[in-house]
Predict the structure.
Amino acid sequence: MPAHFIEPGVPLLVFWVFVAAGILIQGISKSGFAGGAGILSLPLMMLVMPVDKVTAAMLPLLVLCDMNAIYHHRRNVVWQQVMAIFWPSLIGTVLATAVWWRVGQEGIEHYAGPIKRFVGVIAIVFALYIVAKETSMRWAEHHRAGKKTAFVAGVTAGFTSSMAHAAGPIVSLYFFSQGLGKSLFVGTVAWTFTFINLSKVPFFYLTGLLTWDVLKFDLFLIPLIPAGSWLGHWMHLRVSESLFNRIIMVLTLIAGVQLAFDIKIIQPALEWIAPR
């Protein structure tokens, strides 16, 4: 595996544990909990990988996660709702592509810090959202989002998804307001992200993010996709979503604070577990 996929000073064992955990969480989240918990994956992997490599490597794997999710929920979909988010998301994707093109022109070294802080802030905001999720959902139950809200949510989802693969809570909150029911909700979210993530592939290629090195690296991680998807489908019927979300919230908050403020929270533990 190319050394430029690992942040300097990160033990190899820790690298693989964090990367594997990030992919498994995506599969579990997409197949069992409508994708929102996947917000943890990117900040978790950014602790051990360069920011551009994480964003690029995640995309093909997310597409595979989506395929697994829609296989399990292939009949649970409301197409009108999918398109209400997908079409506006293309605007956000184009805006994010312009940012990545600028980063590619000037060099990732000039933007790694700001991108990490951006992802860290998003992680903190969404971790706090998980805390307030029950209140948010109760509010959404009585405030059905209309076309204008769908447009704003779609554009925002496209941008945050293309920058940080972090649109799960935005899309989930919108769909919850539509009163779809649990199975239709999970399936409609899964189909929506299938379209969003597939639409990002040509843009990532054009900006130079998606390379053969990235695809070869992803080959090592593909077996984790069906494993995470199967776990998510199993947990969907057996595990409390509230407990799962609390665990994700704590981990996301820790990773987000470290990225946003460059506070070395987990390094002492990593040094103890796997000293260099």
User: Anything to note?
Assistant: The two ends are 19 Å apart (CA to CA). The chain has one domain: 3-273. The mean pLDDT is 80. Residues 3-273 form one domain.
